[in-house]
Amino acid sequence: MQNTIIEVLERRMGYKKASQSFNIPQSTLEDRIKKVRNGTTSVEEASKKGLGRYKPVFSAAQEDELVSDILQMESRLFGFNLSDLQILAYELAIRNNITHNFNNDKKMAGKCWLYSFLSRHPNLRLRIPEATSIGRAIVFNQAAVGKFFTLLTQVYHQYKFPPDRIWNVDETGITTVPSKQSRLISMREKRQIGTLVSAERGTLVTAEICMSTSGSYMPTILIFPRKLPNAQLLDHTPPGTLAEFHPSGWIQTDIFVKCFKKFVAFTHPTAENPVLLLLHGHATHIKSLELINLVRENNTDYNRSTYHSWPP
């Protein structure tokens, strides 16, 4: 098919002669050459044999880019499971306005696409998703820690990062309600006493904290467990503190992308003066196509840290 299309495009044959010479229906040849001339597809893509009504969602180049992103994340100790890959494929289709039959409610590709993709790329190893607690426990072992420091050493010697260009980011839960009650004075004979407690007892606010090895801090980002913004929640906070809002109170993918954009604005990474960002171990919100592209575009390298499991 490819040779036939080239013959017609280079005007060495007409549609009728090419159809008869290569035994290809003339209407099929005309349709495919029309797409090439309109610039909607390449000769290579137009030459591929279709399987009935089935059309691949991504081109070969787009799938290669997807494979490259997966392997790059894995090399930074952020392995993808099957669900991560399905979500990444959906993001790729949406960002490039590609027609797809993925699940818009779940915002992920289907299993048929997933297994077809894996069969087309046998160099990718199938991964079984792990629970968060198990994943954190596995991270802290001699092999994982050794791999992290090997990778860190390679990146450090490659870019020669000074202390003010090496940053670490982690999240922690903060509560303004005391978890432990102070002792109260009462009658000796009284066996039980009561006290009023806040209705918000047990509600956590997530703090995203980022600091460099030189001791510099980026303004803290607080994620409050609510839908609507409320500027009063930042009263009496340290200067520059930023606020995000989500019903769960935990950091989400879109919030982390906002945090990364603020990090870029704060550190100003360039090709001559890049930044290394160390991320904590459990970071499912980091496996985002938008974030991967932002990291690539903003001269930032990133590694997965295992420090949360180290003994004091």
UniProtKB/TrEMBL annotation:
<dbReference type="GO" id="GO:0005634">
    <property type="term" value="C:nucleus"/>
</dbReference>
<dbReference type="InterPro" id="IPR007889">
    <property type="entry name" value="HTH_Psq"/>
</dbReference>
<dbReference type="InterPro" id="IPR050863">
    <property type="entry name" value="CenT-Element_Derived"/>
</dbReference>
<dbReference type="GO" id="GO:0003677">
    <property type="term" value="F:DNA binding"/>
</dbReference>
<feature type="domain" description="HTH psq-type">
    <location>
        <begin position="8"/>
        <end position="39"/>
    </location>
</feature>
<dbReference type="InterPro" id="IPR009057">
    <property type="entry name" value="Homeodomain-like_sf"/>
</dbReference>
<dbReference type="Pfam" id="PF05225">
    <property type="entry name" value="HTH_psq"/>
</dbReference>
<protein>
    <recommendedName>
        <fullName>HTH psq-type domain-containing protein</fullName>
    </recommendedName>
</protein>
